[in-house]
Structure of Protein kinase domain-containing protein:
Amino acid sequence: MPGSGEKAAGSGGAEKRKYPIGWEDYELYEEVGQGASAIVYRALCKPLDEIVAIKVLDFERTNSDLNNIMREAQTMILIDHPNVVKAHCSFAKDQTLWVVMPYMAGGSCLHIMKSVYPTGFEEAVIATVLREVLKGLEYLHHHGHIHRDVKAGNILVDSRGGIKLADFGVSACLFDSGDRQRPETPLWELLAGWHQKLWSSYMDMISSRVLSFPFSINYKRDFLSRQYFLVVSTLSYYRADIWSFGITALELAHGNAPFSKYPPMKVLLMTLQNAPPGLDLERDKKFSRSFKQMVAMCLVKDPSKRPTAKKLLKQPFFKQARSSDFISRKLFEGLPGLGARYQALKDKDEDLLAQKKIPDGKKEELSQDEYKRGISSWNFDMDDLKSQASLVTECDDSISCKDSDALSFFNMDSLQEQAPEGLHLSRDFTMKYDIDTENDLMANDKSDVSSPEQSVCLSRNGFMHGTANGMPVNSVVRKDISMESCDLVPQEKDFETIPSETSPEAVSKAPKSAVPNVEEHDDRAKPPLIQQRGRFKVTPGHVELDKVLYNESPTGPTKVSQYAGTNTKRNEVAQLLRHGFTVHPFHGFTVHSFRKSLNISIICIIS
Ligand SMILES: Nc1ncnc2c1ncn2[C@@H]1O[C@H](COP(=O)(O)OP(=O)(O)OP(=O)(O)O)[C@@H](O)[C@H]1O
């Protein structure tokens, strides 16, 4: 490609060379890309006389801790697949980490579209690019990695038209020493010991969807089976990549992702309430039926119904995929060199900023992130949603920007659609859920967690009703529950006041009194405060577990203490809590967990 300056980049023998690990052996040239956490430069590796790309991560600019960043770099070094960007090496310089990678002279598909194809690529190009991406995803998933940021901006093209998936900034590995947010995770280590053996069979089972629904399995499994089940449940994580892959297909087809022109909070709303996006019969007449089908298969709200990468590769759509030569011929014609192209886009963004406008790219990025996050998994992270809501600067008439209102946008029906069969979420649960409170508590007082009774108390920030094993179970819990006193009253009225089919407009405009006010309720029922532990309040009285959780089934209350009856169960619950799971017992032997860091729900059976 013209102006690439690429001497030995890409896959093949070059990757086996020994790259020096001192910054003085590299000469940085122009900037060719910038992400949330890093700036990427074209550079020369002097001893090898090879053009490389160097991603410079500034520890002071990123939110991630050093361990996470180092792990990202290590993951990139271990990667060995022609469709995934690997790192040659990495090293620290002052407060930055330098990651040396093959230079991808074509840049990202997003940049190519922005420069030359603003309305998207033709179908054969899309099929070729996506087939390569899928191969990369299949490799990553097979090795226990979830990319979590599949998008046109992370699909890079080398000078020969080779396609590689880049950016492990937010990727997760189920079998690290821990997930990206929580380094101390013996539970995962436990799983890691035997994952290799079972991994391929998991993938097979998942693809046949045998184990996609927790309640269908036998409750009487031994300990290993339960852990096995936990792993299998987490495999819906991988389906988040498939959702993003579908969105990326639309992005390549149109030049931008769906809803990318809307503010993030509105995108979240639309995501939850609207049918999944897809290729339109009218607008997208030029695209084949097989393309439309392939996209529709990925963009299904229920993750368990999305195909695996391996299965997707067999779709007829990919029969039209061509060679890398085809890509270089099609995409590089008339394309300026990467440095110049990047600079032109940057100048345009700076002009917009000077006019106090958010650059298109930035707007799209925010909206896309929300779009992906909102639907590819359940999102109960209130702080996250609040911060997203605060990003909305220009509000649509129908949408209030106030945090409290923003949080009332949830349509329970939409959320319910995503919930596993048999689990019914109450609106109150989604509104009140506060994982941070639990995490803080766990951090403050770990000894409390090991007690099953107190474990039950820890999860009293929500409100949940559901059915387990065909039995209706409504578990009512209250915010600010004390460690010592967990007395509660059922709040059935709260359900009644919530319109089940409500438009966002109606919800946001509803008078405050019509929407259950959690705080008001808490004030009424709150016992006198005698001590503050973290964000939890300690009140007089003793723990009466049977009152903590109400079973509103006709057969009367179920004793919560049943669920933690044995030491094994206690330990398991405690382990889950320690690992950042929020454990919501809503039946004697069923635990429902939400994992904050990945925003993904896990159902596990503790019997
Ligand atoms: N190896 C490479 N060769 C050429 N350009 C690259 C390379 N790696 C990254 N880039 C360019 O730099 C941009 C930013 O890189 P990257 O996405 O890795 O950074 P990040 O901070 O992790 O981004 P994000 O905000 O997506 O997390 C990419 O979109 C791409 O255009």
Summary: The first helix runs from residue 66 to 78. The mean pLDDT is 59.
